[in-house]
């Protein structure tokens, strides 16, 4: 089975169940809106609080099911009009709740003796973090009528610009060797063992972007401009402050993590220069060879072989992880292969309403695809932990979102390295891992710098496509340094990365760094106590939707506000890089 099965959600957009639930959504929203008068006073306050949260659970569960169906269909059929119309309709319906939500949060902010009411009721106690977080959120809300208007405008603002970026990149036709192929297909050729293919694919990719660069630049400017206006109006200093607030993460945690990463940039440049030398380059590594395989292992995996390999290694960690992956493979959770109209990259959607996940991949059979599948299955395993929680406690934030996924990558990578049959294979596997580290430490830092530059610049100006390309090149030079050949960088990395195109989630880059380094720290703890760690790990994952990032880490004895932790995790990456440098002398 190469395609996922969405039948547990709905059969189609004309499925009676889908149409019935769309009507139910409207009915529930109208019922909720009628509660507005309740929040003019604090009579029967505890019962009002319980009643509103129960309605919220019902609504979010329904929207979770409807929206996931529409968005998942859209991700594999980007021109599907029914999917786009349904997503828009759901978003428009949901904006009707903005006024009541703001009223409720403001009401909560002035709730007398709220801790007392929470602590003497089990249902409220279960949702304590959610309730107190809403009170914090209220301090960044404008008045109810303004917030209601903003939520409506966003549908035709950042949300629409985001959909345009997705549409243009997923339908872009790339002319390559006399054929017309998709953007995800041309980008996958960066993994080719043939140097000529890698270079010509890179050139064709850059040429293709010219068809859409102006439109995408307009999208990026519009989204970042909107975010700047709204963050300032809501009392945040910057979009980064808002991103950290949403991430439940302290600025000091980000600062010490990035400070540690910057100290290790020379190490990564050393690796890049060694790779360049191995591939016959003299001025650093050209961007098109970043993903070039090193070593003799050119094994291609079929989908069943990839599945079996992952299962074998997941079983060494825990039976739960193994069984979850087996279920994903056999029950149609995964859409494996690239095709026209399907978005590039990979993602995992945790669908709380059916207590299952769905994974999108663009599988071509290289070892990196096995790592990608392992990564997304890690997200699915995270989902299994939170499906046992209330849906109000299931919303884990960006930094911890990448933890389970990176942990699963590590399991498979370590096993593959241990099983390597030859020196060449060991080099290949090591270098595959280091490629990923380089993306998550070095490239992610360049994306952070680029996004920060765009946000700061948009306060004063609008960037054209050439200025955006210049900012991207500048950011790449700042992080990759002399590790890359400055004549062959990638000025269009802002076009193909969907992470930049969200009005709600800015700076979706540093969480990957957090996820990698936090997962490495967790893996080190696992090696110290394999038997005791698994249950502690599951507890940590379950808590990610109802704790601050720093408090979640403390559950396993890690203090992420200390630079020492990040340095210790980076040292684990250094071990792999040092071994690679030794093996390739």
Strands ordered across the widest β-sheet: 3-5-4
The domain tally reads 3
What is the mean predicted local confidence, pLDDT?
A: 95
Low-confidence stretches: none
Structural class: mainly alpha
Radius of gyration: 24 Å
Our estimate of the beta-strand percent is under 5%
Q: What distance separates the N and C termini?
A: 44 Å
Q: How many strand elements?
A: 5
Describe the main β-sheet briefly.
3 strands, mixed
What is the 3D shape? globular
List strands and helices in order, with pairings.
Layout: H1 16-33, H2 45-76, H3 81-95, H4 98-109, H5 114-119, H6 122-126, H7 128-138, H8 144-155, H9 158-171, E1 173-176, E2 179-182, H10 183-188, H11 195-209, H12 213-233, H13 239-246, H14 251-263, H15 265-278, H16 303-314, H17 319-330, E3 334-335, E4 347-351, E5 356-360, H18 367-386, H19 398-401, H20 403-418, H21 423-458, H22 465-480, H23 493-496, H24 510-528, H25 530-543, H26 549-554, H27 563-583
Parallel strand pairs: 3-5
Antiparallel strand pairs: 1-2, 4-5
Helix pairs in contact: 1-2, 2-3, 3-8, 4-7, 4-8, 9-12, 14-27, 15-27, 16-17, 16-18, 16-20, 17-18, 18-20, 20-21, 20-24, 21-22, 21-24, 21-27, 24-25, 24-27
Overview of this protein structure:
The protein is built from 27 helices and 5 strands. With 585 residues, the chain is mainly alpha-helical. It has 3 domains: 16-156, Butyryl-CoA Dehydrogenase, subunit A, domain 3 (Up-down Bundle); 182-296 and 441-500, no CATH class; 303-423 and 513-563. The mean pLDDT is 95.
Task: Give a short overview.
This protein is mainly α and 585 residues long. The chain has helices spanning 16-33, 45-76, 81-95, 98-109, 114-119, 122-126, 128-138, 144-155, 158-171, 183-188, 195-209, 213-233, 239-246, 251-263, 265-278, 303-314, 319-330, 367-386, 398-401, 403-418, 423-458, 465-480, 493-496, 510-528, 530-543, 549-554, 563-583, and strands spanning 173-176, 179-182, 334-335, 347-351, 356-360. Helix content is 65%, strand content 3%.
